[in-house]
Give the backbone structure.
Amino acid sequence: MKASLLKVLLLVLFLLSTTSIMTFAEEEIDIEDYAQNMQPGWNLGNSYDAVGEDETAWGNPFVTKALIQKVAAEGFRSIRIPITFDQRMAAGPDYTIEQDFLNRIDQTINWALEEGLYVMINVHHDSWIWMENGMETDHDNTVKRYRAIWTQLADRYKNYSTKVMFESINEPRFAVEENEQQHLDELNEAFYQIVRNSGGSNDIRPLVLPTLDTGQEPEKLDGLSQFISELNDSNIIATVHYYGFWPFSVNIAGYTRFNEEVKQDIIDNFDRVYNTFAPHNIPVVIGEYGLLGFDRHTGVIQQGEKLKFFEYMLHYAQEKGFVHMLWDNGQHLGRTSLEWADPELIDMIQTSWETRSALPNENFIYLKKGEEITDKTISFEFNSHTINQILLDGEPLRAAEDYTVSSDAVTFHQELLASVVDPNQTGNQATLTVDFSGGFDWDIDIINYQTPLLEDAVGTTESFQIPTAFNGDQLATMEAYYPDGSIAGPQNWTGFKEFDYTFSPNYENRTIELKQNFFQEVNDSEVQLTFHFWSGEKVDYTIVKNGTSIEGTSGQSTPAPPEKDTEKEPEPKPDPEDSNDETEKEEDVPEGIDDEDKHLERNNEENEKNEKTEDSEAPNKETQTKEQTTDFIEEQRLPDTATQQYNFLFGGIILLVLGIGLFIWRRKKII
């Protein structure tokens, strides 16, 4: 009887220990379900990927548990954690990664898992810091260093939940174009073999593989598709990035509106990606999405046009079954305040996860001071929604009396508009809110304005500001030409210059700044500028550059024509081979270049799709001493046993050893 009880006890102990060990052996993964469970995602940008002393080097505070909790509470179901290892690892041959840094990564991963988030980690800015050229100039050591990173990471996280996935490398690119796919395949093969042979759950852990540049050109998609097919592994996810049609994304060449060309770029790119991977049941993650102009300022794109872009882009991504992950380097969700910088934008993004929204042609009504007020019509693409009511500063309006709804538009009556306008004031007079049966509710601003007035000014190529009375209007874009009609300034394939890179309005200081970037590529000459405003007004201005000295004189304004779309058509673009600028966002990119290359050109070590560095090195950067950094890490550090599963495993092993000991002691006693 005692022997039977002992056998039962030993069996229970064995099952307990086996269960603890098998905690790590996850069930078989349905990769398509896995990917959809990640939807939607968010990027923890400019923190662990920052190049500098610590995670605060690019202006963000230390990552906190409260931040991760906020991300989960906002409805995101996955988090991508970009990581740069370059300055955080020892020299070869071991290339040991700093333990304190890895502890912080552990901590953030565990916070995310506690909130039920899926987690993606990757090798981030190393791609351009030392891999891009290193694969050509120091091939063997570059591969050894890359292998060392993933050897350490694979071993460290092999027993983590399979909700943690590995992405091989961010936006891979290489110095010699004809060798690029070969280099990427070599690194991806090394990554794959290291992870799959490292034990634990890594034999089935989902792995995320990028196209070259994470672009969507056919040859890049085909290169990745072929590589994945040769792996014959069902737990692979493909990844691309999307920052929109390049001229619209940075506001250049007159692309100030979300027009059919911008929409078609989304369709063409997403269709190519879908047609490449969907037939093979390979899920696709848009690992980063946004607008490139956001790297300079989120106001580079006009608010209504920006919202329409995100509405359609997210709709079409979801129609194709793509997981989308918002790139956020701190310009969207405040890392300290935990508040969204642009509530309208996040409202549109979150609404688009569930449904489409109605889309107006404009989210404003401009009324010129002193002119007769007439009925104003806003056209809508209703997308199956109907209007419940329209409110004026929160108070419901009277249908038929204050406004009329047709099949594709809303007309606001003259009496309503006149009642809210103060003839002695310019600027926003009131806000109309169009409340729909579903989707996003649009705000329409009623703005009273006068033609903006630009004053004469003197300055230098380093500092030139035009005193401006905006008079309620807002700047859309700027043209620049020499007197002979040739184009002045950078990106000389278009007269319309890049917003914020070459010029920037400051409404609070009442100035328009012409930037050094503009003057660096302007000859000593007269330059004729035309400023285009959202009301439709155009104001001429002349500058004369003489060495470093600049003198500006005001010209005559051009009244707004009756048509709403007053922007000049962009000029024909030269052949792509003529583009030689050395930065991605600031380059001269002709229209003929493949869409993806408009924001993923070569020779970009300083900007790496600006790699978010202009925002990264913002003037409000927090300075942390090394001692403060160490103290914070010590306070926040996890125990060396990173998860509760380890404790469970060790407890099971101890029980197993005790059981075996008891069995041996019992046998000796019987004998």
